[in-house]
Amino acid sequence: MNRREALALLAVIGAAPAARAFAAAGDLTSAAREAWLYGLPLIEMATTRARALRGDGTIGGALNAFRHARELADDKSRGVTSPNNDTLYSSAWMDLTRGPLTLTIPATGARYISVAGMSMYTDNDFILGTRTTGGSGGTYTIVGPGQAGSGPNVVRLSTPHGWLLARTLVDGPGDLPAVRKVQDALLLKGPATPPPPVYATRAAPAPDYFASVARLLAADPPPATDGVLFARIAPLGLTARGGFDASRLDAAAIAQVEAGVAEARAALQGLRPGAAVQGWTYPAARLGFYGQDYGFRAAVSLAGLAALTPAEAMYMNPVADRGRMFAGAGPYRLHFAADRMPAVNGFWSLTMYQATPDGQFFLVPNAIDRFSIGDRTPGLKKNADGSLDIWIARADPGGERSSNWLPAPAEGPFTLSFRAYLPKPDLMDGRYRVPAIQPG
């Protein structure tokens, strides 16, 4: 830490009595708990980037260039947690350290597209496409911190590195060739850059984890508004500009740090992404741009990395048998009255997921290769009164219910995610609520 950083830190501590007492007490366990959660989005972004550059999963890309998923996500997709089954992904990892990038988005007309530019802290610094810039396409100049914006339609990323993730709507298997043409016209150009360093994953021992967080902080400095956080975690020695020296921690100190990390992991499992109302958890307004809600940011980075803001898409998770997880065989029923269909200007879907032991979610293999169901599902049948029933079960519910069946895994707990793209004001402000899932 240099003299300027030290003076700034002392000023923050002096201005915050709670932070001053915390630092004076040297509470390594508490500092490690908060620092681990704070660093998790950086670690998850770096891990996802490394996986993409290795070519793992179905999405990814070289630095400053798009790579396209040509098929909808399925049960083999492991590129990112909680993938959707509605759009084709196009992904590019950005390095702006050598200058701005030029992004070209083709005209898509009425077809939904979004191109989200995410900082390494997982904030959606900009979203281009149907909702914000329309369906006519355009050319945009992406600039990093401190860079001059001299090109057309300047948009700014708040960190020198980040993720550009495009979602293009697919209206059934027969629509894939048309969507691939859209992808081919989605272009990113910029200076060639070397590959990023290797960083630890969230499973790493605490000293390795925090050493990688320090390097990531140095590469992508945090906003000044996180100063109080760094005052609180001062006992750990992790600074806003990447300072961390594990060698100063003896065995007893390491034990305290590891205890704090264990507490952070446990706390992560209990964090809810929003308020539970009538059988569903609704996203907080700050989803996709988190401010100082570091716990929420961390939880989303683990269970829903690259979540869009609610104005673009709302993600609802069920209140089920065990938290958000269902344990029964079903059938369960989701019923929409004829005059209470989902309030969206775009489209909606219900997606089935299995959870991994570490809390991530992936699509479920099943006999009919149906991973989600929604307003564009072929063969979906409404009732005589215009209402709609969706049946969720491990086994085919049979008869007329089969056409509206969303398969659950043959065994083990499962969960669901209801996605509403371009939600109407009624859904965003709570006048419309998704009906609760009921036993069938």
Question: What do these coordinates show?
Answer:
The chain is an alpha+beta fold and 440 residues long. The chain folds into three domains: 3-44 and 198-270, no CATH class; 64-189, Domain of unknown function DUF1254 (Immunoglobulin-like, Sandwich); 277-439, Jelly Rolls. The protein is 25% helix and 23% strand. The chain contains nine helices and 20 strands.
Topology:
Elements: H1 3-15, H2 17-25, H3 28-54, E1 67-68, E2 87-95, E3 101-105, E4 113-119, E5 124-129, E6 138-143, E7 154-156, E8 161-169, H4 176-184, E9 187-189, H5 206-219, H6 227-232, H7 251-270, E10 274-277, E11 280-283, H8 294-303, E12 313-318, E13 332-336, E14 348-355, E15 361-362, E16 372-374, E17 388-393, E18 405-407, E19 415-421, H9 425-428, E20 438-439
Parallel strand pairs: 6-7, 17-18
Antiparallel strand pairs: 1-2, 2-8, 3-6, 3-9, 4-5, 4-8, 10-11, 11-12, 12-19, 13-17, 13-20, 14-15, 14-16, 14-19
Helix pairs in contact: 1-2, 3-5, 3-7, 3-8
Beginning-to-end CA distance, first to last residue: 61 Å
Strand content range: 15-25%
The CATH fourth-level homologous superfamily of the largest domain: Domain of unknown function DUF1214, C-terminal domain
| Whole-number tally of structural domains | 3
The CATH topology of the largest domain is Jelly Rolls
Count of helical regions: 9
In terms of quaternary structure, the protein is single chain
Tell me how many strands there are. Answer: 20
Q: Given the C-alpha coordinates, what overall shape results? A: globular
